[in-house]
Amino acid sequence: MQQLSNWVIVEEDKIKRLQRVITFNNFTDAMRFTQNVFDLAEKENHHPTILTEWGKVTICWWTQKIKGLHLNDFIMAAKTDQL
Questions:
Q1: pLDDT tens-digit series, residues 13-43
Q2: Binning pLDDT at 50, 70 and 90, where does residue 5 land?
Q3: Structure pTM?
Q4: What domain range includes position 21?
Q5: What are phi and psi of 59, to 5 degrees?
Q6: Which residues have a Cβ under 8 Å from the Cβ of 54 and sit 6 or more positions away?
Q7: What radius of gyration, in Å, describes the C-alpha atoms of the chain?
Q8: Helix (H, G, I), strand (E, B), or coil: what is residue 83?
Q9: Is the dihedral of CA 57, 62, 64, 65 positive or negative?
Q10: Number of compact structural domains in the chain
Q11: Domain assignment of residue 2, yes or no
Q12: Residue 74: which CATH number?
């Protein structure tokens, strides 16, 4: 978590998830970023929850199979930061 300072751990439906809200100047930039996250998720075969709105994207990484956080979720969050 020290390397993921922009991420927080949230709990929804008793499941811990890594979450980050990223802001943008407009909807077009938010959608482009969402597409980049989609491409990353497809490449890695690990898919987040993504909410795209005007000026912001909320991303949650977690592993459905174990109903919680796995090392891979932290890796994907770091890769998301690189986008």
A1: 999 999 999 999 999 999 999 999 999 999 9
A2: confident
A3: 0.90
A4: 8-82
A5: -120, 135
A6: 26, 27, 30
A7: 12
A8: coil
A9: positive
A10: 1
A11: no
A12: 3.30.1360.20
